[in-house]
Amino acid sequence: MQNTWSIGPGRITVREGDITRLDVDAIVNAANSRLAGGGGVDGAIHRAAGIERLQAACRAIIREIGSLPPGEAVLTPGFDLPARHIIHTVGPIWRGGNANEPGLLENAYANSLRLAHEHDIRTMAFPAISCGVYGYPVEDAAQIALSALKRGVNQGLVQEAVMVLHGEPAYRLWTRAAEHIL
Ligand code: ADP
């Protein structure tokens, strides 16, 4: 199940599936500020990449920067993944909407796209950042995410951005949002 929209010099695809299986230049991880791994998509990415090597790479980054603030992004190798790189970004925890959650979510997408561009990444895949345990209302998150991807692809930061949704209900919701925004 997937759908693709032409956006300026590139394209955006919305598809259902498991992000760890995608053969793209980079996949984005919805990480936490300590890059400590965890549940959800973060746990799946750690298992598929190889927990030991990915944790060592994440620990080295945290030794250098202390912690990764919400909205920021860093890069590691993809290790055992089909994807060559992982871009780790931290989405906001939903606290009711008055804690700059929309700005931070937008930054998570925009900074991931910018980092990808700096590393000559042309195809990248995103999970629905903050839409799991971080509790972001999905309709609002979809609007922010798709608008940020549209801007980045229009600017030529990457050639193709893929939104990967886990499960058919999420895929349908995001496809409806994409039909409005893209
Ligand atoms: P956050 O802490 O940012 O909310 P979660 O990992 O809890 O992150 O959830 C983010 C989204 O990722 C959720 O919508 C969840 O359904 C989805 N997800 C979980 N596993 C995968 C996977 N293997 N591939 C793609 N999406 C996934």
TrEMBL record:
InterPro entries associated with the record: Macro_dom, Macro_dom-like
PROSITE patterns: MACRO
Domain of life from the UniProt record: Bacteria
Boundaries of every Macro domain copy: 1-182
PANTHER family: GANGLIOSIDE INDUCED DIFFERENTIATION ASSOCIATED PROTEIN 2-RELATED, MACRO DOMAIN-CONTAINING PROTEIN
Protein name per Swiss-Prot or TrEMBL: O-acetyl-ADP-ribose deacetylase (Regulator of RNase III)
Native organism: Pseudodesulfovibrio indicus
